[in-house]
Amino acid sequence: MEALYLLFSIVSTFFTSLTLSLLLPFHKLLWRRGSSRAAYSSSSDGDEPVSLYEGTVWHERRRPVHHSFRYKVRYALINLDSAPFAPPGHLSAFEARRIADTTGPVLLLTIPPSVGYEQNPLSLYYCYDAEGSTKHLRKCIAEVTNTPWGERVTFIFNPHSDLVAKPLHVSPFMDMLGSWNIRANEPEDNLFVAISVNHTKLGDYFTASLKAKRLSSSSVSDHAAFFWLMPHKVAVWIYWHALKLWWKNVPFIQHPRYTNPAYREASVRDQKLQCCKPVELNSDKHVQNGGSDQSYVADKSCRERLFAWRDAKWPWS
């Protein structure tokens, strides 16, 4: 039955995107008349409300078979306080600050929808604390969405480096065991995000990363054209490499919602994980990548992930 749902979703997306793509010339005409230029103009304080990034996503699986790939990707970094539009389906600046308990700007890294379709395996909210005229990146909020179900989980993590109990079935070729080691730098001219999976049996067997560079705002005249079919390309890569993993006889794992209704209980597993987490001494408890100056203590501020789930979209719901 799920195969039929997938086929219906692909066919529906194809015809919707084809129709809307044919309308893109009219969108460009409107942009030339000032509509899009107003939407993406700079804010009054000089900060760009939307910055564009172009880079590469890289995946590597080392067990039970080796499989790796990379693809080009384009992202938008949206200042949720100064952008004149609210991205549909995402948190507002107010909601992100409330969740992260921060006081400064909130930036959202995401792939905008294109011609009626959205595909965002990972979106990030960079939550800053403001102290006078300076700002400090304090926390990030991850927004992870699985394919093809469209389920979503959000949680807080320390961008310097953090270990999070796996809260979502992101792939039919990965079980729910283990944890995510995640880190991200402050998005400036260069942007970096890395996630590795630490499995109870397979060890550190999977790594995914995003490396991107900020583009000059003058180099992109039409954002709709810049992101045209970008979500579709990401989906194609996901399905194509899923087919390759199946061909390599990597075990197919049924979605745990059919066998284990309690699979979302990540908070309990995460609290146990944090009790054995290395943290740097005398440095605001930032996680340290290595070295001897560390102690295994519970960091109460990092244990409050505030996991929140969104159910699967139709027709998977």
Molecular shape: globular
Question: Order of SSEs, N→C?
Answer: HHHEEHEEEEEEEEHHHEEHE
Please summarize the sheet with the most strands: 11 strands, antiparallel
Rg over C-alpha atoms, rounded to the nearest angstrom: 20 Å
In total, the number of domains comes to: 1
* Distance from first to last alpha carbon: 13 Å
Q: Share of helix among residues?
A: 10-25%
As a percent range, the share of strand residues is 25-35%
Mean pLDDT: 82
Number of helices: 8
Q: Record the strand order, biggest sheet.
A: 7-8-9-10-1-2-3-4-5-6-13
Uncertain runs are 34-46, 279-302
Number of strands: 13
Structural category is alpha+beta
Structure, explained:
It is a single chain. The protein is α+β, with helices and mostly antiparallel strands. It has one domain (2-252, 306-310). Helices cover 25% and strands 31% of the residues. It is built from eight helices and 13 strands. It has helices at residues 2-22, 24-32, 35-39, 93-100, 223-226, 230-247, 266-274, 300-303; strands at 50-61, 67-79, 106-110, 122-131, 134-145, 152-157, 162-165, 179-184, 190-199, 203-214, 278-280, 294-296, 308-310. The strands form two sheets. An eleven-stranded antiparallel sheet has the order 7-8-9-10-1-2-3-4-5-6-13. The protein has a two-stranded antiparallel ribbon with strand order 11-12. A hairpin with a 5-residue loop joins strand 8 and strand 9 (190-199). The radius of gyration is 20 Å and the shape is globular. The protein starts with a helix and ends in a 7-residue tail after the last strand. Mean pLDDT is 82; it is low at 34-46 and 279-302.
